[in-house]
Amino acid sequence: xxxxxxxxxxxxxxxxxxxxxxxxxxxxxxxxxxxxxxxxxxxxxxxxxxxxxxxxxxxxxxxxxxxxxxxxxxxxxxxxxxxxxxxxxxxxxxxxxxxxxxxxxxxxxxxxxxxxxxxxxxxxxxxxxxxxxxxxxxxxxxxxxxxxxxxxxxxxxxxxxxxxxxxxxxxxxxxxxxxxxxxxxxxxxxxxxxxxxxxxxxxxxxxxxxxxxxxxxxxxxxxxxxxxxxxxxxxxxxxxxxxxxxxxxxxxxxxxxxxxxxxxxxxxxxxxxxxxxxxxxxxxxxxxxxxxxxxxxxxxxxxxxxxxxxxxxxxxxxxxxxxxxxxxxxxxxxxxxxxxxxxxxxxxxxxxxxxxxxxxxxxxxxxxxxxxxxxxxxxxxxxxxxxxxxxxxxxxxxxxxxxxxxxxxxxxxxxxxxxxxxxxxxxxxxxxxxxxxxxxxxxxxxxxxxxxxxxxxxxxxxxxxxxxxxxxxxxxxxxxxxxxxxxxxxxxxxxxxxxxxxxxxxxxxxxxxxxxxxxxxxxxxxxxxxxxxxxxxxxxxxxxxxxxxxxxxxxxxxxxxxxxxxxxxxxxxxxxxxxxxxxxxxxxxxxxxxxxxxxxxxxxxxxxxxxxxxxxxxxxxxxxxxxxxxxxxxxxxxxxxxxxxxxxxxxxxxxxxxxxxxxxxxxxxxxxxxxxxxxxxxxxxxxxxxxxxxxxxxxxxxxxxxxxxxxxxxxxxxxxxxxxxxxxxxxxxxxxxxxxxxxxxxxxxxxxxxxxxxxxxxx
Amino acid sequence: xxxxxxxxxxxxxxxxxxxxxxxxxxxxxxxxxxxxxxxxxxxxxxxxxxxxxxxxxxxxxxxxxxxxxxxxxxxxxxxxxxxxxxxxxxxxxxxxxxxxxxxxxxxxxxxxxxxxxxxxxxxxxxxxxxxxxxxxxxxxxxxxxxxxxxxxxxxxxxxxxxxxxxxxxxxxxxxxxxxxxxxxxxxxxxxxxxxxxxxxxxxxxxxxxxxxxxxxxxxxxxxxxxxxxxxxxxxxxxxxxxxxxxxxxxxxxxxxxxxxxxxxxxxxxxxxxxxxxxxxxxxxxxxxxxxxxxxxxxxxxxxxxxxxxxxxxxxxxxxxxxxxxxxxxxxxxxxxxxxxxxxxxxxxxxxxxxxxxxxxxxxxxxxxxxxxxxxxxxxxxxxxxxxxxxxxxxxxxxxxxxxxxxxxxxxxxxxxxxxxxxxxxxxxxxxxxxxxxxxxxxxxxxxxxxxxxxxxxxxxxxxxxxxxxxxxxxxxxxxxxxxxxxxxxxxxxxxxxxxxxxxxxxxxxxxxxxxxxxxxxxxxxxxxxxxxxxxxxxxxxxxxxxxxxxxxxxxxxxxxxxxxxxxxxxxxxxxxxxxxxxxxxxxxxxxxxxxxxxxxxxxxxxxxxxxxxxxxxxxxxxxxxxxxxxxxxxxxxxxxxxxxxxxxxxxxxxxxxxxxxxxxxxxxxxxxxxxxxxxxxxxxxxxxxxxxxxxxxxxxxxxxxxxxxxxxxxxxxxxxxxxxxxxxxxxxxxxxxxxxxxxxxxxxxxxxxxxxxxxxxxx
Lengths: 763, 763
Fold this sequence. Notes:
Shape of chain A: globular
Oligomer: homodimer
Low-confidence stretches of chain A: 1-16
């Protein structure tokens, strides 16, 4: 499937022993997913760090002449591997999203005549951007290095949680510059830049903030920028439309050496003389709250100018994160895939809180965290599936804090809703469902979240009863959303039904019978959009009849969000047996799944859906997008677990590899990677908020998962190989597992799961 | 001079006894100055209150088709007496300025079909505005009442320091509305509205903020709005340009009953059913810091819905303020003029701090006040002259806090400058000079400001050495500003020279000899722009020669700000004797002054200067603008104090009266009024930062000034009358005053100043 591999990172030698301690960082290739639609970024960051300091290869407008600019989609993470130039290095990036924002505070070092405009990729010499080559580029966890050819500057980046650390090695020049582009950004809507303030405090310290109206409607990012060397001059390019009243600001020359700067569209330059190989370093701290907090974050996290130490501390943090799972895998490529997946599954959500505990809430007020780390950027439609369950397994404290952050969001919400897709003190309500209830319920049911469980249940119930939100009112009244009400009426109904089941599970755990009864009933609503006459989920009209014109293959305009009914008809994760029964039993489901994975579809069937790409498709099965992530595991209930095993291994093999284009679709804030990790280990959380995992086929020979309190859960796959993908027998702590399921409680106590593998299916 | 008196507020009866205790508020007519160019507002406020809740009769754009809209000048305070309609009631207004801003949060109650646009003055029925009549209008301190004819609604307004309190009496209607116009504002520049957030917390509480880029470049006003009765519905009109990406916000109907609102150009409506004569009350609290602080301000200041009590408390505060000076005057008109002047001299600067002590600093950070009340809106070019000296006399604690506020501004200034014209955490640098040094020096020299005097001196010196600011560098280097450097080079040089003298006086007081020497030398720089050959101050070129083309009458393009050289040549308040000597001695100055007050000028000489109006002119003397405010007193040094006495009385009589058009020019944040108060009492601070007042001719029969610590300074004008304007003799505590000057120390100890008045000049 992967016809284009733009470069070969991997030496395909066997690597079938555990990696040495302290050496896992080397297996992380941040470049994976930076080509095509992976939408990952190659730059520097620490685990869940607030700063993602990374090169942007273009910063193009969202719309041109009032029309959507399709090319912008490529730049969700700012970087496209095949681009020839780097515009600069900005401090905030999503990882793997399908819509975007951020790209704040783009910095570019230059030499020669001052150029204040970015220029274009085909004529970089007309702007401050620079050509670069992958030959001169290194991307490691918390370290990025590149030669900027046009300026003869070596750029190196590292970070702490809240501070980006730049190290630029200049040539000898009396015209060395640092550009700070405060107009640049990712997904630059018209008028996205709402307001910008900059204060040049002295000749080495600059503070300010940038307020945007983008995917996050009301967002302010504060900064403090410190130079290792005083600049000799500085200036501002103000690109705002001139006003009739210019005011008494004219009393100053505001373009040059004027320290009190504000406007909508600003760029700045700081000028230096440099000797050959002289380094200019910049510490760039962020804060969600204020400039003074940004200064404090900088002083607390990086009090000196030791770039190497900061790089090492961040890489040590990564090493610690990666060592939570030790693996013995057949090839180095497997190891790289696995640890890069772990890396990608530890980038988001990001810390959104200053070192003093303050953060900006959804209510646009400053809050002080009550004993938890506040996180932001919850892509919940993606991450409730495997990512948050994965954190519950190896990062329970972080996931508990994420639930606490979601509860704070709820407490601050004037809509009284948990987050849908929230970032930077905003909810953008992207995608469908109210899947935070899945994350909340899963974390409480598994004993991870220790906060007020009744308050959490109440938040879930309130969210599920937000009648004005995307058809919820009708869904409550009629048991389904009508096609008249919503263009994604079927997928919404299906997703609400699963979410309702999560609430029911939480209510049951808390002994709230009435809530349980209400929501367990609602969780059956998937049945109301199933059309038995055609054997698919189907849009239903207000009058109860099914929509006439209906295409089971098309992804757009059929009542589903980013998927067709072939994929979405399988979306009853909380009651797959019921779904199967409805479809006509095991054989019918088996045939359905077989068709899904093998049927031939012309390209145009997915051409209209941004988040589904050719690379992410196997037959009609769409791995590159989330709704089908549990589907390969469904053969476990058709009596053909060997098909699950085969399919999972096929997906692991074909949808993930070591190239820059090594992801078959958006990584989606770690969800694609979490799928990889779980499936490689041989199990998957088909229905979060249950305590069950369904078994697949481990791709590791052996793995040790640190499950907390010093305990390890060991997975062994005896005789595992590329051919031996079928499971003969599974023993959990010596006892045979007969139903292809294990429980979370079995894992977190520590223990051993032994798969006996074979080249022959066990039928 | 006052040919147009649009109405008669005054009954011209003798009122030659002290008013009764507790009854001074009745003599304040806030309507004075609301016609023509007084630029005062008639609405409700408490002394120096953060809220000025007042009707706006139009809210017109600053520019039309890219050109300045001259009409906007009329609306500096939002209200023009001769306008037929009221658009609504907004919460922030400057008093008497010549440029403007504010007008935040315009509220209008309406009935009938919902109208979301303001409409026009000639067709009010097309919008939410309403016709009104002065017959149905009452304006008192902290109380404003008007009938809104188009809606049959009685509107009443009162305030506490930080909360506006609206009381609307509706007719019976199922279509009663409260409009909250978040686009409306005073001096509406294009794109002035930067961002607005509104949160409908519940059916009686709304919070939010409004961020503007107007005269204050970066300004945010936060609010909390509470209704006495739940609204039944609400909605938003969003007038923003539609974006290509509409986002998932479309999941909600954002126009109706949607509580999470943000955008650039928003209007809101809240809908009610009302019975006949049903009152809907609104408390509207402001904060410079946050919505939650606004809520706290509201709860602290007005915990209930008792409109009458709040009105009474505010009027009691005014009574207390007014009682600081008791007067016995010949007529009720005099009394109204006097107490209205005291009223106008207690409106600005305004409290800019929450009840918890937090405020937004010039550095855009949140600060907590260290033991002082933070004030904002310092129109220092105006107010350093008589207004701040006036506060030093009767409101020393407030003036000390104002100096503390200016010092906080300095500490937060990235330019390391004291305020020039500052408002709402910004400096707009309007007008010329660095006159905060006069206020600071005056307050320290008079023992008012008890803070760190050395830090204050340092702030003054730093400000005076801000080389990049309006010619200061050249001024320091050459002793004058060249015509090439600045269009107001002469007035700047003159004003800097006076300011430098203030710094010298402060340095002397603090024993800082080197600083004293430096600045006393600089204070002589006025000599460098005096052209002896023509006997006027005159622009000088870079090469030292005087500018060739020069018109001594014209106000524009001649090197002066808002004045001609006839007026400005007298601006050496710190060394009038030196000035007189330079001009050729007493006789020459006397003739000069005589000419000034009597010469005939065609109208067009002042037509180009916004802040100078026909009404404010006596001959070529311009009382309506500030640079000449000390001029009438200069006859004291020509040996003709009787001319000072005559001129002062003439100005008192002709430049101030009880009509809506009763001010001869902008009140300028209390400066015009402070001139009236001082001059009525018989003395004036010709050179603040000296401890001297110059004597004139008291228009009171008697006055008692509370000068603190229970002490009174009593002024008696024996035989004073409209004819007996000449001073025969003056006794200070029984001792004759021979030089027509008294000292501040003489006043604040308490005592008695007796003027013996006569109809005959004492030559």
